[in-house]
Each structure stands twice: as C-alpha cells, then as structure tokens.
Design goal:
By secondary structure, the chain is an alpha/beta fold. About 30% of the residues lie in helices and about 15% in strands. Helix 5 packs parallel to helix 7.
Length: about 325
Amino acid sequence: MLEDPTTTAAPSPTAWPAAYPQGYAVVDVETTGLARDDRIISAAVYQLDARGEVEDHWYTTVNPERDPGPVWIHGLTSEMLEGAPLFTDIAGEFADRLEGRVLVAHNAVFDWQMIAREYARSRREAPVRQRLCTIALSKELGLPLPNHKLETLAAHFGVVQRRAHHALDDARVLAEVFRPSLAAAAAGGVRLPLLECRPLTEWSDSPVPRQPGGYGGYRPTSWRPSRKRPACPYPNPGRYEDGKPLKQGMRVAFSGDTSVERDLLEDRAVEAGLHVATSISRLTSLLVTNDPDSGTSKVVKARQYGTPVVDEAAFGQLLRDVAPADG
C-alpha cells in the first residue's frame, strides 16, 4: 500500500511516468435524475495539465426542457433554468473544454453516460476517448477511507466543500482531491485506472412512429457497442453473504428491467472490481433483479443453485464499499 498521499512529496520532473495522459478535464454534471432519459441541468469543468495543475474552469446551467427533478438536492428550479441555454447551445464550448483530455469524475461512468447521451441528442459526439474515476483511483492508491463518497475523499485531503451538489463546487472539490491523488500515483508508479469511452451514435428518449420498412428518424434506444469486457483480474471469492460487503472478483448477473440503465450498472460493477456474468451458474456470486418472483431463466436457475438475490437499490448500496480482493 502506498503511504498517505497527503504526505507524499510530488515526484520530480524526471520521475513523472511518461505513459500518463497529457491533460485532464475534471467534470461534474447535475441532472434531472438517474434514468436513461434524464437530462443535464448544469455542468462544470476544471481543466488540469499533465501534472494536475489547474489551467482554467468553466460552468453553465442548462435548460433541460422538462421538470428539473430533485430540486431539494441540486437547488435548480424551473424558474432558474427557464432562461438557461439548451445543451445544443453549449455543446461546442463544452467540447472545447473536453477535447484531447481524459475525463475525470467521481463515479465517472455516470457523468460520461449523461454527457454522451446529450451529445447524441444533439446529433454530435462528445470528444472524449478515456475516462478516469476518482473512486477507482482511490482504491488503486489504497487510501484508508471508510467509504468512497466525495465528501469522505474531500475530508481525507482537507478540502472544504462549500456547496454540495453544485456542479462548479463539486468539480472544484474533485480537482483538489484529484491533484494529490495523481501526484501520489506518479510517485508510486501506479497504473491509472483509465477506461475507454465510446460515444453513442444515435439516441431518442421516446419511440418514433413506425414507418413502412422500419423506424423513422432515430431508433427508440441507444446504440449499444459490444459489451465484451477484459477478464476480471481478481479470483472469484465465492458467493455473496447477506450483511457482508461484496468482494472484488465476485461474479454478478443481472435480470429484468432496472431503473438505471443496464450498461451503467454493469460499468459500475466492473469499475468496482466485480465480474459481470451473462448467465447463472453454480459459480455466480449474486443475482441482481427487481422482480425475484419472475420466471426468467436467470431467476429460475438462481433458485435451483441457491444463488443469493438482491434488488437494484440494495446492489447500489453494496457498490459503495466493495472489499478488496484477497492479496
């Protein structure tokens, strides 16, 4: 385990890993919700250079053209957003802030999915090719954290949060915790947990009337790239036990509809070090389903094998604190 990054001196210029990225865009977006058809209502970007020094920052509100969702969380009302630009109006400037940089965010797969969908709605592609999740980086560094919430990470590095769930302040806090994390990773020669970002090529939030020969316009679901993933690097520790945390290497399968898009749930699981299984076997650690009484093949096999079953909400809680694999 690395020593505490707050006491680790920044590496000398000659020691900086040559393979590290040349720049970062630390991003936070506030949204109308978590579902696949929810919209961005504010966005902030802190641009950092190759060594984590702040170069610039940017913030905007966005008119989602719908109800703003949980106002009690983000504080943005319909009246406040009425005169804000549409996403199509800020897409170019947002892209300029992201171009050529690694997207850094806390639970980065969520921010990336929301951004990718907004660009697809605008018939454009987000200029992002890699992302880095600060949750995954904190785990790579072995930080002594009780959980991986942003406020916990901020407290560890002595960063004061002024306006939680305000995109600009969340991005500032994230930039301030990412900078010493990046320095500690460089000092220890740690591999950065970079993941590929594949932009969506088409999108629609609602079905389009069927026309002769097929659909007109965009199809009602997003284009989904191949979900073939690299092999999980951790051995399977066995089945999940109620009351205990998930452990890296566990094989997790999903069945039925979920409120959060399936790809997003799967990416979260992979980033936490879990193996996403496409079927149920005696080796499956856990089945996630919101309908445990359904007759799907996965649910039936889970009953046959005695595979533990949890719903989506419980799985989301478990993902917050996945235990490391046995060393």
